[in-house]
Amino acid sequence: MEPTVPSPKAKEEAETSPVKESLAPARGLQTGDYLTTAQGLRLPDTDHSLKAGPRGPSLLEDFHLREKITHFDHERIPERVVHARGSGAYGTFTAYGNAASVTKAGFLAEKGRETDVFVRFSTVLGSRGSADTVRDTRGFAVKFYTAEGNFDLVGNNMPVFFIQDAIKFPDVIHAAKWHPDREIPQAQTAHDTFWDFVSLHTEATHHVFWAMSDRAVPRSYRTMEGFGVHTFRLVNAEGGTALVKFHWKPVAGVHSLAWEEAQITAGVDPDFHRRDLADSIDAGLFYEFELGIQVMPDSDDETFHGIDLLDPTKIVPEELAPVQPVGKLVLNRNPDNFHAETEQIAFHLGHLVPGIEVTNDPLLQGRLFSYLDTQLSRLGGPNFAQLPINRSQAPVNDNHRDGLHQSVVHRGVAPYLPNSLSGPEGPVPAGPEKGGYVNVPRLVHGEKVRANPVSFADHYSQAALFYHSLSPIEQDHIVEAFTFELSKCYEQAIRVRMLSVLANVDAGLTAEVAAGLGLPAPEGTPPAQVTPSPALAQITDRAWPITGRVVGVIGTPDAGTAALQQTLKTQGAVVRVIAPVGGEGVERTFQTARSVEFDAVVVAMATDNPQVTVLLQEAYRHAKPIGVQGAGDRTLAAAGIDPKAPGILTDPDAESLATALGQHRVWDRVPLLKPAAASAGS
Ligand code: HDE
User: Fold this and answer.
1) Which terminus of the chain is more exposed, N or C, with fewer CB under 10 A?
2) pLDDT tens across 337-379, in order?
3) Of 71, 150, 156, 622, which is the active-site residue?
4) In order of start, what are the domains of the chain with their CATH numbers?
């Protein structure tokens, strides 16, 4: 019905929004009570086109039809050329204050200072709609809305990168993304062009080891480490400098999916990580990370214990430079609108604040160009900083003018400096005493060349360091991943060449992968001596908090597991009852549940339902704790699972289940599974 009287809200808005004020960005947008056109015209009907009679043709004069469809046709913006698939959340970063000795950046240096952040996690290779759990590096990009302007820490969940010079980025991405003729495979490295590239560009070897490790299949974004990768230069209030690497340490520990689990999940729940992030925040089970820094002296040669700090294929082992925690990040708010916030956020390495400078790492230098440039086509012009998600919380007065999608109505006639016309209104330059960003003077000299430092030629020592630092189970996973991925290549020559690369890292690993591929193991020259870095291993004896871990209880809601469920919940775990059919208190049925969504399973009823059998067998194979209560032992027997196997807990109390969950997997069970896996693979 056509409204005749404006609603109280509309009236209030009309009274308090003089035309001038309504020009301020976003003010009063999309708040009216009535459906309107984009011009504010109220609409009585949005379900029927204007036609010449009910059976007649649609009329060109239907401006509402044309506006609605035109806007819809242009809803999508180009996806990110890399890191297209991602999801994000808001949070708060609180500084511990101990970083003041190395940086004057207020958000790090001032004890207790709270800074708003937005974090976007992502995969690198897949398109926007691809699955979350594919084998890939994950992006870990953080925008700090600091009082001094935005600072972006655009990192990954692996501390090294495939290439040493930004000029090769298009090449590695062309090779790693789908084949251009058929546009397959989606979001995977298990194909010829990727292995062709990395076997020919051996600087990629270290990152390839990380990509074949469990780090490439995280359990959730909650259980990933983050790394700034490059070395940055921090500057303190006295002008003293230090070379620094940034780390995000997950409070929940670093945990991964089993490879088979990751593959099943890609089909069963392609939104697995995205869902976990959003659901956890909704449930108040916030993701938490500590920001840490490794601090190295700012020496002339920019090396530390012989490690070239400008080489992004190298880490500094934590045993040589401990990661010092400097603040804590809590992700505590979901975005309201995926497009406006997660899709339109624009990160850039050049978003810096006083106290943080870049180094000459040639990968970092190229990124300083790329992240600004890419927004011009993604976000349609140079005014993307005005989008709500990208706006600085510090006052902005930049003298930039006009351009596509300019939403500011600038005043004044003199957008240039110096000028004699702006009077007190115009911006004036700010020296360092006013918080202006001033680079620490550094001598730059050298011949103009296309060349790398000599130290960049060492492509293998740190791949070996990484491999030798891992637990035997993690090493096995790397062998299996290389074997899996290379088996998927069509070209034998690529497999053979990659084996010759692996031979320069470790002979044992090469022999195992070669055996899996049915090829002879080549000889290489692996590093003679490797000092492991235990901090790199993710499987240790340590038990971690179980916040956000999911326990499936097979039974009816009243199957006598109430006390167990309650205690697990108070420790932050999520409990889902899996019953034969739906009903009050039932979150999954036998038909809808799949093992991959649970970190542990408790079976509390007797059933020989085949879907429950598969669920238990998968949970067993993926080394998850399994609790058995009451008649559940019959279900276990129907699934052919030995009740005396490690990690099968009879009548578990919540504590023993929580302890097992805190270890992430029943690692003692893994060797039992190995012979079967080996014979299946041969
Ligand atoms: Fe990126 N990268 N990158 N990258 N990168 C982008 O920027 C690029 C690199 C990383 O959630 C793009 O806005 C070049 C390293 C993350 O929005 C683009 C090089 C690391 C994200 C771009 C690198 C990263 C991106 C695509 C080689 C880890 C997602 C869209 C010099 C330290 C950020 C965009 C988000 C995104 C270029 C290498 C991390 C094209 C040229 C090394 C987490 O600008």
Assistant:
1) N
2) 999 999 999 999 999 999 999 999 999 999 999 999 999 999 9
3) 156
4) 86-390 (2.40.180.10), 460-536 (1.20.1370.20), 550-679 (3.40.50.880)
Q: Is 371 annotated as a binding residue?
A: yes
Question: Does 122 contact ligand 1 (Cβ within 6 A)?
Answer: yes
229 lines ligand 1 (CB under 6 A): yes
Amino acid letter for position 523: E
Tokens read off for 519:
């090829």
b/e per residue, 69-80, with b = 16+ CB within 10 A?
A: eeeeeeeeeebb
Question: Torsion angle of alpha carbons 674, 255, 590, 583, nearest 10°?
Answer: 160
Residue 170 makes CB contacts below 8 A (sequence gap 6+) with none
pLDDT bin (cut points 50, 70, 90) of residue 30 is: confident
Q: How many helices (H) and strands (E) does the chain have?
A: 19, 18
> Is 64 labeled as catalytic in the residue annotation?
no
Alpha carbon of 82 to ligand 1 centroid (Å): 7
Distances (CA, A) of 483 to 415, 476, 479, 514: 61, 11, 6, 8
**Ligand 1 near 159 CB (within 6 A):** no
User: For residue 478, what are the CA distances in angstroms to 78, 178, 483?
Assistant: 35, 23, 8
Enter the pTM of the model. Answer: 0.94
Read off the tokens for 223.
């259980």
Question: CB within 8 A of 610, min separation 6: which ones?
Answer: none
The pLDDT score that the predictor gives to residue 560 is 77
71 is catalytic: no
C-alpha 581, offset from chain centre: 36
